[in-house]
Prior knowledge:
Elements: H1 5-22, E1 25-31, H2 36-49, E2 54-58, H3 65-78, E3 81-84, H4 88-99, H5 109-134, E4 138-143, H6 147-151, E5 165-166, H7 173-183, H8 187-190, H9 203-207, H10 211-223, H11 232-244, H12 246-249
Parallel strand pairs: 1-2, 1-4, 2-3, 4-5
Helix pairs in contact: 1-2, 1-7, 2-3, 2-7
Amino acid sequence: MEFDVIKVTNEIISFIRDYYEKNNLKGVVIGISGGKDSAVVAGLFTKALGSENVLGLWLPCHSREIDKLDAIEVANHFQFELKECDITEMYDDFVKEIRNKGIDDNFLIDSNINLKPRLRMSSLYYYAAMMSKIKNGGYLVAGTSNKSELLVGYFTKGGDSVSDIRVLSDLYVDEVIQIGDYIGVPEHICHKTPDDGLSGKSDEEKLGFYYSDVKKVFLEKETGVKDNSLSDQTREMILKANRRNQHKFFIPSYERNK
């Protein structure tokens, strides 16, 4: 089925407005990374709530200057306030404290990678609580993960997986790009190759498969129609990523026998 970008965009804007009106909320805090997902989320919220009710946060942690410039461009384009909160020193102090306990750096690689989004999420919620007091109205933290990332578990549990409202979680990467083009996200940002800004590799290079193939695999599951353009190896790699990350999707909770 062809993606109706106008219809879906209008539905998302209505979804935001309806939720805010129903719950008597005022504004939103969004982490602005300089990438397409946060740019599209920011654009949708400014259209839904007005730019005066959108606060963007640039949260550098050993980050690239080009990403900062792109974050500023997004804020200027959609005319919302962008604040900088540098968490580099906080991150460095935490890692230094762990290293001082004699832990080998080889054991800290994954922990360090995931610490950054967790510190960022804490910062976003700090600002949301602060803005709720300043503006005398509830501010939520908006999630920026898209469906392609979520399906293969490409997010940090307790980090970018945490939010109060999601507007991209049922949209594949190509659909996010179409909405970005439609609402006027600067082209070079909307079509920017997604990466973590750390490893020197794109997200797809790290994952070992394309986001376009993620969509194909899960459309196969929905429709029951096999896509012959997919290799069995790629299909299994994507499904394995989904299975391997099930612990990120569901939290097992003990319930007493009644």
